[in-house]
Design a protein that fits this description.
The modification N6-(pyridoxal phosphate)lysine is found at residue 195. GO terms for molecular function: branched-chain-amino-acid transaminase activity. The chain is α+β, with helices and mostly antiparallel strands. It contains seven helices and 19 strands. It has helices at 63-67, 90-103, 111-124, 197-212, 258-269, 281-290, 327-340, and strands spanning 8-9, 34-41, 44-52, 70-72, 75-79, 85-88, 136-145, 158-167, 175-179, 217-221, 228-232, 236-241, 244-248, 274-277, 279-280, 293-300, 304-313, 316-319, 351-353. Strands 9, 10, 11, 12, 13, 14, 15, 16, 17 and 18 form a ten-stranded mixed sheet that branches. Strands 1, 2, 3, 4, 5, 6, 7, 8 and 19 form a nine-stranded mixed sheet that branches. A hairpin with a 3-residue loop joins strand 16 (293-300) and strand 17. Helix 5 packs across helix 7 (327-340). The chain starts with 7 loop residues before the first strand and ends with a strand. The structure holds pyridoxal-5'-phosphate. Residues 74, 231, 234-236, 255, 257-260, 300-301 line the site of pyridoxal-5'-phosphate (PLP).
Length: 354
């Protein structure tokens, strides 16, 4: 890594660790004691600091609120078997963060700020990394535009922040998902591949409608004809069809998931044939009906590997194979977990051990 940066540290007077119940961790609701902040102005990043987690004063005119220049990332730090802490593939998140920044006309965050910010924050909040199996410290990098005046143009000022939140398993059961045939998440030439706030905002209404019908998640389809499967709300989708691992290829409408990429590499290493291509809705429904589709799961940092149990399509519910019988996703999920928690050698060099 480059030279050590000057990061000012202000410690919280009282830690909230003792009043935090680590057996009750709803996702994203409990934050660790500190956060990291860097400010961008006049073409320069400065004022790098770790400070107590809490509100930051801000003008209600900031352009992130009005024009949506806001991007984020998500990765996890794990407590390894030997007690050390490792962050899983942070460089992939760093690269994707700056890809999102570029698309949203925001400045790139230098790699040393991204990485040393994470290291400084985890160093001070080291005790917030849970040790229980299935638990981790979720790291949320975020950047937003802070010009305090109105006008549709790229902001001149930004804040880059890192927040951390201890977390347990995200979904506790197989998912019931709906293939969305009316609303869309992303379109060609749009911003679907960027992890930007508006992509999530536009998904909330269709998601709420699906929830009313009893679904846990949506499967997004292409905006042009609702013919092809793209991804889920907060995860990529992977199927096993005729014994092959099949996943929608990454395109301008699909987020290039780190978990997806990791699983593809693990599957190939295990000798499983992998197909990254367009996957039609028809093929998935037919595969369920004729028994050639034997496994389906959502793959993401928050969701990890979550089996899909039922799929709703045009008012009909299709039940997939019993998740307990699925050897492919269970095997991959175990290997992935074992690598993250340092239980097996990290042959791919994915863990950044702090
Ligand atoms: C829309 C969307 N797709 C896919 C993913 C999975 O990506 P990753 O595995 O990098 O977490 C996420 C989560 O970050 C997401 O929000």
């Amino acid at each position: 890594m480059n030279d050590t940066l000057d990061i000012t540290i202000t410690k919280a007077e009282n830690s909230r660790l003792t009043v935090t119940d680590f057996s009750q961790l709803p996702f994203g609701k409990v934050f660790s004691d500190h956060m990291f902040i860097a400010e961008y102005d006049n073409g320069q990043w400065s004022n790098l600091r770790v400070l107590p987690y809490g509100p930051i004063p801000m003008s209600p005119a900031i352009s992130a609120l009005h024009y949506g220049q806001a991007i984020f990332e998500g990765m996890k730090a794990y407590r390894q078997a030997d007690g050390k802490i490792s962050v899983f593939r942070p460089e992939k998140n760093f690269e994707r963060f700056n890809k999102s920044a570029d698309r949203m006309s925001m400045p790139a965050v230098p790699k040393e700020i991204f990485m040393q910010g994470i290291a400084a924050l985890i160093d001070i909040d080291e005790k917030w990394v849970p040790a229980q199996d299935g638990y981790s410290l979720y790291i949320r990098p975020v950047m937003f535009a802070t010009d305090p005046y109105l006008g549709v143009k790229p902001s001149d000022k930004y804040i880059f922040a890192l927040l951390t939140t201890p977390t347990g398993p995200y979904y506790s059961k197989a998912l019931k998902v709906k293939i969305e045939m009316e609303y869309t998440r992303a379109d060609d030439g749009g911003v679907g591949y960027a992890k930007t706030a508006g992509n999530y905002a536009r998904s909330l209404y269709p998601f709420a409608e699906a929830q009313k019908e009893g679904f846990d998640q949506l499967i997004w389809t292409d905006a042009a004809a609702h013919e092809y499967i793209e991804e889920a709300g907060t995860a990529n989708l992977i199927f096993v069809i005729n014994g092959k691992l099949v996943t929608p290829s990454v395109r301008s409408t699909v987020l290039d998931g780190v978990t997806r990429d990791t699983i593809i590499q693990l599957a190939k290493k295990a000798g499983i044939e992998v197909e990254e291509r367009r996957v039609s809705v028809k093929e998935v429904i037919e595969g369920i009906e004729n028994g050639t589709l034997t496994d389906a799961f959502a793959a993401g940092t928050a969701a990890t590997v979550t089996p899909i149990g039922e799929i709703g399509y045009l008012g009909k519910t299709y039940t997939l194979t019993d998740p307990a019988t699925r050897t492919v996703s269970a095997g991959i999920a175990k290997t992935l977990n074992d690598i993250r928690y340092g239980l097996v050698p990290d042959e791919f060099g994915w863990n950044w051990v702090l």
